[in-house]
Amino acid sequence: MAETVFGVWDYIIMAATMVASGAIGLYFRFSGGKQKTNEEYLLADRNMSIFPVAVSLMASFMSAITLLGVSAENYYYGMIFVVINLSYGLVIPTCTKLYLPVFFGLQKTSTYEYLELRFGPKIRMLASLTYTFQMLLYNGIVLYTPAIVLESVTGLSRLISILVVGLVCTFYSTLGGMKAVLFTDVLQSFLMFAALISIIVFSSIELGGLSQIFIKASEGGRLNFNNFSVDPTERHTWWSLIIGGIITNLSLNAVNHTQVQRLLTVSTLKRSKLCLWWSWPFYIALSLLTCTSGLAIYAVYKNCDPLSEGKISSIDQLMPYYVVDAMTQIPGLSGLFVAGIFSASLSTVSAACNALAAVTLTDYVSRWCKVRKSHISVLTKMAACIYGLVFLGLAFLAEYLGGVLQAALTIFGAVGGPLLGVFTLGMFTTYATELGASLSLISGMAVTLWLNFGGPRPPTLKLPLSTEGCAVNGTLITPAQYDSSSYFYLYRISYMWTSPIGFLWVITVGSVVSLAWRQQQPWQRQGRATPDPALFTPPLARLLESQAAKEKPVMCELLKYDVTQE
Predict the structure, then answer these.
(1) Could you tell me if 356 and 390 are in contact, meaning their C-beta atoms sit under 8 angstroms apart?
(2) Are 297 and 216 in contact (CB under 8 A)?
(3) Are 193 and 335 in contact (CB under 8 A)?
(4) Distance (Å, rounded) from C-alpha 144 to C-alpha 161?
(5) Is 230 helix (H, G, I), strand (E, B) or coil?
(6) For the purposes of burial, counting CB atoms within 10 Å of the CB of 553, is it exposed (0-12), middle (13-18) or buried (19 or more)?
(7) Please, are residues 349 and 143 in contact by the beta-carbon 8 Å criterion?
(8) Architecture of domain 8-398 in this structure
(9) Nearest alpha-carbon partner for 53 in 287, 367, 267
(10) The pTM is what?
């Protein structure tokens, strides 16, 4: 690594960020209801405005991993990854029309309460544990990511960096509740945008204009948008990015408890839908800026790649290396960059702690123990604190998962696809049973985890790199050739296909098992002839209502909020 330079102004900006984040948490801890009830602590009393929720939806899974991972992706593998943004345009209307009305209508604290109402208690517990597993792995990476940056830019060891960031995250997440999480996300997003824009502007000035970024990227083969191959073993193609992106983003925005919990913090379904729609432009803007920043750094180091030269030890150190190498001449820029990374992880982890605390109290503790109402709020905060400490421990294992971007998408693909399949079975069919849903989820998870972590796996080939412009031993580095046929075929499939495979596996196996081994449905056990329309996606719910109206009026007992008003 280059010699680290972290000046007075950099430390001031970092300190100001930490103070501001802590102040937001303290403000909401001692204002309003003072976080005394779970309704306020977990759902912000369901009266939030649209803007902070929309920004938070964008920021929750687009934090430090986005800044480091996507920029490195575009540098070493090309800009084709930007195609994944097209999937988001298909995901938003699907979420708002087919999935969100069900969750908003039920108004439950935990997303997985739906599964018990639709299937039974076993699948609810299984899905809740699966979500917990997913978020534990992901947030270990989220804590590990700023440790890379702090080590690179400030000179702090990775151990100290993880401890500092982890402990601050844990402290903050026990204070603020959902209101603080949402408003901290706004601060986080501002710093992320500022850090990316500063890199693009600074590199443009260094190169002689914004156009030079794309000219040099084109010369280096980084504007590689023409891969329309249907071969699933190719890492990134239009098909894998769009189809894989749709299923992965649906699993995050349609049924992931962290996102659904935020969508329930507003007062009406219409406002909740607007939150999702308004998150789209923020998402696209941040993604495009991150991709462009990766190309900008490539344009600067086109003839002297820092990884090949040995200046950095992993691709995730690329952006912080550029900040240290080229931007420290302007006081405060390094601090601004580190502040963006730090606050991003702070907010993401605090949101995860808040969401997992809700799941723990609702799905585990309340089911197994009788808890006094006065103790619930204290136990929720204790759960949030414990999860923060667990994230800290898992952060030390994250470096063994490879690049942070692929590691994060791999985790969400392996777990998110099967979970989306279970909720889809429940909402879109009346024949699916608890046995079918449970067996398909377990087997689907086994398949996707095997596909992702089985080996040996072929190496991921980077685009050509060069050290010809370096002071010593300059060469043009071309990708090494290998015989792909020597690897087991399923281990060669792109990680972007994992989520669709898991989703289709659950839908197929769940349907076959449910139809082959008939099982009494929850509404049948309650003595009802027809299912409650509130448990199904709106098109199917309307069909069930019309059928019921012909036979006998049916009261939707579970529907606490009248979505028809929207």
Answers:
(1) no
(2) no
(3) no
(4) 9
(5) coil
(6) exposed
(7) yes
(8) Up-down Bundle (1.20)
(9) 267
(10) 0.89
Please report the DSSP string for 382-421 in residue order. HHHHHHHHHHHHHHTTGGGG-SHHHHHHHHHHHHHHHHHH
Question: 3-class secondary structure for 76-97?
Answer: HHCHHHHHHHHHHHHHHHHHHH
Residue type, 380: T
d(CA 480, CA 462): 9
Query: Amino acid letter at 278?
Result: W
Residue 131: name the closest of 115, 145, 151, 108 by CA: 115
Residues in the chain: 566
- Return the exposure string of 438-449: e unless at least 16 CB atoms fall within 10 Å of the residue's CB, then b: bbbbebbbebbb
Tokens, residue 524: 């049948």
- Phi, psi angle pair for 466, to nearest 5°: -145, 145
What is the amino acid identity at position 531? Answer: P
Half-sphere exposure at residue 259, Cβ-oriented, CA atoms within 13 angstroms: 27
Q: How far is CA 487 from CA 241, 426, 459, 501, in A?
A: 23, 38, 10, 20
Residue range 58-81: mean pLDDT, rounded: 83
pLDDT in tens, 89-138: 899 999 999 999 999 999 998 899 999 999 999 999 999 988 888 788 77
Query: Which phi and psi angles does 121 have, rounded to 5°?
Result: -70, -30
Side-chain half-sphere of 557: how many Cα atoms within 13 Å? 7
Reference 111, options 92, 137, 135; nearest CA is 135
CA distance 446 to 133: 13
Quote the CA–CA distance of 553 and 555 in Å, as a whole number: 7
Backbone angles phi, psi at 33, to 5 degrees: -85, 0
Could you give the residue range(s) of every CATH 1.20.1730.10 domain in the chain? 8-398
DSSP state of 565: G
For 25, the token pair is 């948490």
Residue range 9-20, pLDDT digits in tens: 888 887 788 778
**Cα separation of 285 and 55, whole Å?**
12
Q: How many CB atoms lie within 10 A of CB 10?
A: 22
